[in-house]
Structures are given as structure tokens and as C-alpha cells.
Amino acid sequence: MSAPYILVLYYSRHGATAEMARQIARGVELGGLEARLRTVPAVSTECEAVAPAIPDEGALYASLDDLKHCSGLALGSPTRFGNMAAALKYFLDGTSNLWLTGELVGKPAGVFTTTASLHGGQESTLLSMLLPLLHHGMLITGLPYSEAALLETRGGGTPYGASHYAGADGKRALDEHEITLCRALGQRLAQTALQLERGRG
């Protein structure tokens, strides 16, 4: 059996969500657990799948086993009209067997997103991502206001999860507050998972 890990599962088109995932993974490791970065393939309009089994670059594609065996989950997506991207929704729609067997019940989960505009649906996207996690019985770990960066941010950052304002061209780098909040979310997930493990022991 592998060591306990937090699954950092995301979809990224232009790299901003992937960078958030890397910062969250750093936070997970600061919190004392391994972070496992995984992504999902784009949804194809073709009748047959056209994506390679292994991506050309970046994280590997997630499997249901990655999700089944995780100690906690950070789920990330760019905003698509105030909702998560279709690729991530497609993956989640295929998790019925994990729901039927209750594999994710009681595990901590958090969410993160990026937007091209400052008020482009960050909060509604985060909330949309929480819905399937609640159906799976996961324990939602948002970001508390004890994180000072939540009160100081001029870009992303919400109590529902970490967020990033990427700009219209998608090239605005994560700022200091956004990085701090990403790492805080990862650390919170790891620490919560460890506390839950101790409680079961």
C-alpha cells in the first residue's frame, strides 16, 4: 500500500490552474503529506478519444484509483461561464462506483479556480465544484479568515477555496497573496487528513 497522499486533481488550459496546483502541492508537503498531482484530458468533440494515454507534458492523467486511495482531495479548474470546465465535470461524472461504495466519505476536500476577469465567476465555480464532493460525503475545508491574505488580496482568494485572477490574456502570474492562500489550502488539507487518520487509529 502506498504512503498517504493528497490528490491535487486539476484541469488547466493555459497553465494558471496548473501553477496553482503546484503551489497547493507545496502546501500539502509543508503540512506533512505527499502531494500527488494529476490532471484530466480535454473533452473531445470527436466520436472517438484522440488524446494520448500519457500527456506530452505536465502531470499524468488521473485514474479512479488515484481518487479512491487518496487521504484528501484538492480539485481545481478554470472558470467556464461561472462553472467548472467540462473536462473536470466529465471525470467526476464517471465516479459513480466510488459513490456507491462510499470510498470518499469522510475525506477532506478543497477547491481552487482561475478566471480571466476579476469578477468572472470565481465563487460560483468553486461552489459548483463542491457539489459533487458533498454528494460523495467529503468534508469541505475552505479557507478561514484567520488567513490574513484573504483580507489583503487584490486578486484571487475566497473563503470557499483558493482562486487566481489570470488576466484577459491568461498571463498574470500568481501574486504573493494568491500563492500564500494556495499553500494554506494545501497545508490545511494535509493537516486535516492527518488529524482524521489519528482519530481513526
Report on the structure:
- This protein is of the alpha/beta class and 201 residues long.
- It has a single domain (5-200), classed as Rossmann fold (3-Layer(aba) Sandwich).
- The chain has seven helices and eight strands.
- Strands 1, 2, 3, 4, 5, 6, 7 and 8 form an eight-stranded mixed sheet that branches.
- β6 (108-115), α5 (122-135) and β7 (139-140) form a beta-alpha-beta unit.
- α1 (16-30) crosses α7 (176-200).
- The longest helix has 25 residues, at 176-200.
- The model has no long low-confidence stretch (mean pLDDT 94).
Q: Which geometry do the CA atoms define? A: globular
Major sheet characteristics? 8 strands, mixed
According to CATH, the homologous superfamily is Flavodoxin domain
Range of helix content: 25-40%
Strand pairing plus helix content: what structural class? alpha/beta
Mean pLDDT: 94
- Give the oligomeric state: single chain
- Tally of helical runs: 7
Instruction: Please give the CATH architecture.
Output: 3-Layer(aba) Sandwich
Structure summary, number of beta strands = 8
Query: What count of domains describes the coordinates?
Result: 1
State the name of the first-level CATH class. Answer: Alpha Beta
Task: Look up the CATH topology.
Answer: Rossmann fold
Element string (H = helix, E = strand): EHEEHEEHHEHEHEH
EC number: 1.6.5.2
Protein name: NAD(P)H:quinone oxidoreductase
Domain Flavodoxin-like: 6-190
Keywords: Flavoprotein, FMN, Oxidoreductase
